[in-house]
Amino acid sequence: MTTAPDDLLLPNGRGNITRLPKVSLHDHLDGGLRPQTIVELADTIGLDLPASDATSLGAWFADSADSGSLVDYLKTFDVTTAVMQTTEGLERVAREFVADLAADGVIYGEIRWAPEQHLTRGLSLDEVVEAVQQGLDAGVQDAQNGGHDIRVGQLVTAMRHADRGLEIAELAVRHRNNGVVGFDFAGAEAGFPPSKARAAFDYLAAHYFPATVHAGEADGLASIQSALVDGRALRLGHGVRLAEDITIDSTDDEATYVTLGVLSQWVKDREIALELSPSSNLQTGAIAAWGDDLIDHPFDLLYQLGFRVTVNTDNRLMSRTTLSRELALLSEAFGYDLDDLERFQLNAAAAAFLPVEERQELAEAISAGFEEA
Top-level EC class, please (predicted)? Predict the structure, then answer.
């Protein structure tokens, strides 16, 4: 599912989640394709697919991604990236991506993707960034023509195993005035800490360019520490395993005491945003230490303790989800109401890679939209 239904309501029936203004910070371009688009683009380049029709293909992605392993989860991207190797393919995917965000009530979205994975048909790094931006611009214009105000920005991603971090950091900075708002570091997490791409992060810091780093998803606290220290991350991509640094003790009189470790206290005190993606975290086994159902996710623990939690989709195709659906699932699991959902959006607005004045305008638009709900 890539377009949101019209009837995602809070459990108490108060508030249509789909129509609420939302901010999306962690959403992969190559994880948000429409199955029908994949079928059509694959036909133009002669690519064999695991299924020939859109419905079956969508089911294949969801089933394959629900593996309990980030490594296996990532294998599904071999199919999506294969149809994103031409200017036409990149532009179409980016344009539809914005349309689907707009249909889900998103008013600001940061769209992450790795240009280095889209060069097999002769395009250069700069050409693929430009193609995606053309598609995003067209999508924004389409949305505006349909009466929906949406802004988007690119997060240019370096794949941690490919050792091209500095080159991709330079690419991101080169396009900072052409739609790129930040840098991301992603891919197989264990064994590839940000410390191995120190030159890239030094370059970004020297050019005052913000970074988010995937950490605390498929690896633990050392990975998060490296993201903050070596990667100078302003946000943590997922970061769910930060909860490993939180100790909960119960006494005989049924009192409960919570103790934060040095790392988790640092993240909380500096309001470093956690880009949590509930459905994806279940699929990849990121919350296996706590359980295998949404109610086991440490999202609520982190929220109640005052961390800057945000709600994200990660990959809408693989998780068959939307941002509205993620919010609905959390509301059902933890009893959240409109005030909670508004807080998640305000957290995301505060963490967006935008100038402070624009973040404030975004926050005002969110509050106004929730007041009307």
Answer: hydrolase
